[in-house]
Amino acid sequence: MITPIEQLEPISGVKSAKPVETVRGDQSLFGAVFQSAIDNVKQTDMEVREAQYLLSTGQLDNPSAVTIAAEKESIALDLLIQLRNKALDAYSELTRISL
Question: What is the rounded CA–CA span in Å between residue 29 and residue 19?
């Protein structure tokens, strides 16, 4: 004898997915970190220029201050470049995600 197929009961406890919400706080935090790195590069560049000017006019007592300022600028610029590279890597990773 053939038994008819009964209607399936819906699964309880499963809720519909919520839409993705944009979090503004994290965006402003990243922007603040990135802007701080940019400001740091600008500040160290001004310090290098000032030290070079003082050295060229004979007003600088310690010539190694120019080298120290240049190294600080180099490190600040390297940090900014690394931040940019990490942000671009994260963006490209997000674009590869398929929904």
Answer: 23
Angle between helices 64-96 and 24-56 (to 10 degrees): 160
The secondary structure element, H or E, covering residue 49 is helix 24-56
Is pLDDT above 70 for 13? no
Q: Global pTM? A: 0.65
pLDDT per position as a tens digit, 58-99: 999 999 999 999 999 999 999 999 999 999 999 999 999 876
For residue 30, which amino acid is it? F
Q: Are 48 and 69 in contact (CB under 8 A)?
A: yes
Name residues whose C-beta falls within 8 Å of residue 55's C-beta, 6 or more positions apart in sequence.
Answer: 63, 65, 66
Kindly tell me the number of DSSP H helices and DSSP E strands found in the chain.
2, 0
